[in-house]
Amino acid sequence: MPPHAIQDHMLILAAFPPELEPFSERYRKDARAIGVGLVTAAHATGALLASAKPAAVLLVGSCGVYPGRAPAAGAVVVATRTVLADAGVAQDQAALPPPMATHAPTDPAWVERFVAGGCLPAIVAGTLGIATDDRLAHALAERSGADVENLEAFAVAAACAAVSVPCVAVLGVTNVVGSQGRIQWRDNHRTVAARVVEIVERVLG
């Protein structure tokens, strides 16, 4: 679906309600919380795709930036693509078998529109857990090639790809992934959520 008049067609998703609270009533009616984590997000997104039959899906939320990667905390990114990342793989202790899907696309037209609206392009890694070790954070970045880490983006993008529904993810950077990440997230996530919503509402019009 080309980007126009999407507030009547796009389903807005977030991991949990505080990420949706800054939306005005005009957008909140089409917004749903899908839960935290890969498995919960995949299940909830699949169910919503089947029941709501949206023309497109927008995931909003937060992410951590991997050490040494851009952008800085406080920025808002749009996922150019999502990749599945695993701590065991990053440390050469596990493998993802070839039949397993490890990449899920986002919609190029929506990516382009959000970049024009002020988002920075980024590759998003989807992990089962938050990396809380600095060395692991570096290893995940190097192995996955991703810029930022988020727990739901890969699941949502994969669920949308399975039924050919365009998907885009717009995420605010709350922290640097690693030992201080959870503290930084707690300090920043509400402010960053408001910034994400400001950009989304401006782009959607």
TrEMBL record:
Protein name (Swiss-Prot/TrEMBL): Nucleoside phosphorylase domain-containing protein
SUPFAM superfamilies attached to this UniProt entry: Purine and uridine phosphorylases
The organism's place on the tree of life at top rank: Bacteria
Organism: Pendulispora brunnea
A Pfam family reported for this protein in Swiss-Prot or TrEMBL: PNP_UDP_1
InterPro entries the UniProt entry points to: Nucleoside_phosphorylase_d, Nucleoside_phosphorylase_sf
Boundaries of every Nucleoside phosphorylase domain copy: 35-204
PANTHER family the UniProt entry points to: 5'-METHYLTHIOADENOSINE/S-ADENOSYLHOMOCYSTEINE NUCLEOSIDASE (PTHR46832), FUTALOSINE HYDROLASE (PTHR46832:SF2)
